[in-house]
Write a structure and sequence with these properties.
GO biological process, one term: arachidonate secretion
Order of helices and strands: HHHHHHHHHHHHHHH
Largest sheet: none
Bound molecules: 2-acetamido-2-deoxy-beta-D-glucopyranose
GO molecular function: phospholipase A2 activity
InterPro entries: PLA2-like, PLipase_A2_dom_sf
Number of helices: 15
Shape: globular
Keywords: Membrane, Signal, Transmembrane, Transmembrane helix
Length: 377
């Protein structure tokens, strides 16, 4: 039922979108698109705010940080998620944020879409709150490759047109409010990681939401989620040393100085020894998570990424070996044959020389010249 309703809702919008996408001024349609934070001047925020459901009220996500859908699809995405799996809104929104950054970075539409669908499917498979949206995910993914093209092209165009860096809206650069003592290094991440602003803002937002929603798990689990979220960006961006450093710096401080404000307050009331123990526990736990996550995935990704280039390399090496071996063998054989020829030739000459040596001395010099010329060959 939901499936067909969504189909009915989405298909006309795809057609409308296609028509607008074919128009000559795609930038005027960017009312709530990926480029909103970069150029808020040529849009009309009050009108837009009226048009879209208040995601802050529905999911606790401010509209400027809502990342799912573009243009008309945004409204339907919000409604669908609200009706089907409202408790998974933050997770889905994070997938959308990563997808936005991928489009903005122009890292290949197919790659971005595949990653996005894997993200959605992962949550559907692992989180009971998201399981209801399994059909929605199955629906969206095939459509994405079709209508995502317009958004992808728009991203490229807006990137081209804004050669001079326009100031990014401050409220979209979110910092975890529960970790105020580490705001500065978080801002540093924004400065160091180009084209990752949506993802990083989403990590901060999800940390806030984690503290707000009552959960069975302890609050420090929110810090663990933040670590995972930031650590995970490594696999979703262009390799960047400065970005790696900024994130490592932040993670290090997070582990060293603790996560949420409630944790630190609680810790102040504890005895010194207990405090030390708790900090050590935290460090150990987080290190374990980091190694679990990064190490295993690093190794896996390295194997996957390098296997293609490695395969080519080993193939070339093998071919080179085969050819050079063949060459050596052929050369050796030809040399053998040549040497035998030369030996035979020399023997003939020697016989000739010995037989003719007694007669005329000049003929021996002639024959030696002959033999030397034949060896030169
Ligand atoms: C969101 O879902 C709630 C509960 O199902 C419903 O009352 C509300 O009208 C929905 N809002 C929108 C904008 O769809
Ligand atoms: C998904 O769709 C299938 C059939 O298309 C249906 O049987 C199933 O109940 C749906 N699941 C959800 C969670 O809506
Ligand atoms: C955008 O820039 C790229 C590379 O700089 C260029 O190949 C492409 O044609 C440009 N696109 C537009 C629409 O200007
Ligand atoms: C680390 O991985 C092991 C299995 O590989 C698992 O049992 C353990 O729970 C993981 N630790 C954490 C903190 O996720």
């Amino acid at each position: 039922m939901n499936f067909s309703v969504f189909l009915l809702l989405v298909l006309p919008s795809v057609i409308v979108l296609a028509q607008f996408g074919a128009g000559e001024e795609p930038t005027t349609q960017d009312t709530f698109d990926y480029s909103t934070p970069e150029n808020p001047v040529d849009t009309e925020p009050p009108v837009v705010a009226e048009k879209f459901p208040d995601t802050e009220k529905l999911f606790g996500i401010p509209n400027n940080l809502w990342r799912c859908g573009s243009d008309f699809v945004t409204k339907m995405a919000i409604k669908q998620i609200n009706n089907t799996c409202p408790l998974a809104a933050a997770e889905f929104n994070h997938c959308c944020a990563v997808h936005d950054d991928c489009y903005d970075g122009q890292r290949g539409q197919k790659h971005c879409d595949r990653q996005f669908c894997e993200c959605l499917e992962y949550h559907v498979a692992t989180d009971p709150n998201a399981a209801n949206c399994g059909n929605l995910t199955k629906m969206v993914c095939p459509l994405l490759s079709y209508y995502g093209r317009f958004a992808y092209d728009d991203s490229r165009d807006s990137k081209n047109s804004s050669v001079t860096e326009s100031p990014v809206a401050a409220e979209s650069l979110k910092v975890p409010t529960q970790i105020p003592h580490l705001s500065e290094p978080y801002v540093e991440i924004y400065a160091s990681c180009d084209e990752q602003h949506a993802t990083i803002a989403s990590c901060a937002l999800n940390n806030d939401l984690c503290y707000r929603t009552p959960r069975a798990e302890p609050k420090e689990q929110c810090t663990v989620h933040l670590i995972r979220c930031l650590d995970d960006t490594r696999f979703n961006r262009k390799p960047s040393k400065t970005c790696d450093l900024a994130i490592d710096e932040y993670l290090w401080k997070l582990i060293r100085f603790g996560g949420g404000s409630e944790d630190t307050k609680e810790m102040e009331t504890l005895q010194d020894e207990d405090k030390k123990k708790e900090i050590q526990m935290n460090v150990l736990m987080m290190q374990e998570i980091l190694t679990n996550k990064t190490l295993v995935r690093n190794v896996y990704l390295q194997i996957v990424r390098h296997s293609s280039s490695l395969g080519l390399l080993s193939c070339l090496t093998f071919l080179f070996c085969v050819f050079s071996c063949c060459g050596i063998v052929i050369y050796a054989f030809s040399r053998c044959g040549e040497e035998e020829d030369i030996r035979r030739h020399d023997e003939v000459i020697n016989v000739h020389v010995t037989s003719s040596a007694s007669e005329v001395p000049s003929s021996s010099t002639m024959s030696s010249m002959k033999s030397s010329s034949s060896t030169r060959k």
